[in-house]
UniProtKB/TrEMBL annotation:
Residues 81-207 form the DUF4232 domain. It holds the Pfam family DUF4232. This is DUF4232 domain-containing protein. It comes from the Bacteria. Residues 12-78 are annotated as: Disordered. Residues 12-25, 54-78 have a biased composition (Low complexity). InterPro entries: DUF4232 (IPR025326).
Length: 209
């Protein structure tokens, strides 16, 4: 009987010590299951930032691409016209009340649009390279930027007077017309421009249509 009681007591002790171990193991398992719970929340919130960042970039990029493809965007993206990319010609325009006008035309011979803004530098040149009189002065207000598509033109107006107006004579005939497009340090040269300046009046408008 005594040995049976001891065996029974030993069995009871093993059972009671096993319960706490099982309970503790269950608690750790549950805590372990609860511990990963925040990562799903973090994972669900973490992707919220990356999508918003890529989402902003495509929205902005197409927007700017549209603006560039449009009229104003295209204008702002056009480079300044260079002397190398232009040709020029000059012809007599309308005259009136003792005034003479010449139309100086720039043609864009390049393969891309370019812009001209402001006044050109215009001089009459002798064969030896010396300047006749003085370079043309600016006349009128500066106009806005002019975008010139390939093969298209922009103009300025050269202004002088008829002979004997203001009691002065005319300058010597020019062998060349030398023109610096607005913003350019390189010049275009036109031979025998048939341009005669009288009355000590020689002006140029800004680039226009």
């Amino acid at each position: 009987m005594l040995s049976f009681a001891l065996v029974a007591a030993a069995c009871d002790g093993a059972s009671s010590s096993g319960d706490p171990a099982g309970a503790a193991a269950h608690t750790k398992s549950t805590g372990s299951a609860q511990t990963p719970a925040p990562p799903p929340d973090a994972a669900s919130s973490a992707p919220a930032t990356p999508p918003s960042s890529p989402g902003t970039t495509p929205t902005t990029t197409p927007g700017s691409a549209t603006a560039t493809a449009g009229g104003s965007g295209s204008a702002s993206g056009s480079a300044r016209c260079t002397a190398e990319g232009l040709t020029m010609s000059v012809r007599r325009a309308d005259a009136g009340a003792g005034h003479l006008y010449y139309r100086l035309t720039f043609v864009n011979k390049s393969a891309h649009s370019c812009t001209l803004t402001g006044f050109p530098g215009v001089s009459l040149i002798k064969r030896d390279g010396s300047v006749i009189g003085v370079p043309a002065k600016r006349e009128g207000a500066a106009q806005g930027r002019r975008v010139i598509a390939p093969g298209k033109a922009a103009n300025v107006t050269l202004h002088t007077l008829n002979q004997h107006i203001n009691g002065s004579g005319c300058w010597a005939g020019a062998d060349y017309l030398r023109v610096y497009p607005p913003g350019s340090k390189e010049a275009l040269t036109l031979r025998d421009p048939q341009l005669r300046i009288c009355g000590d009046r020689f002006t140029t408008s800004s680039v226009g249509g």
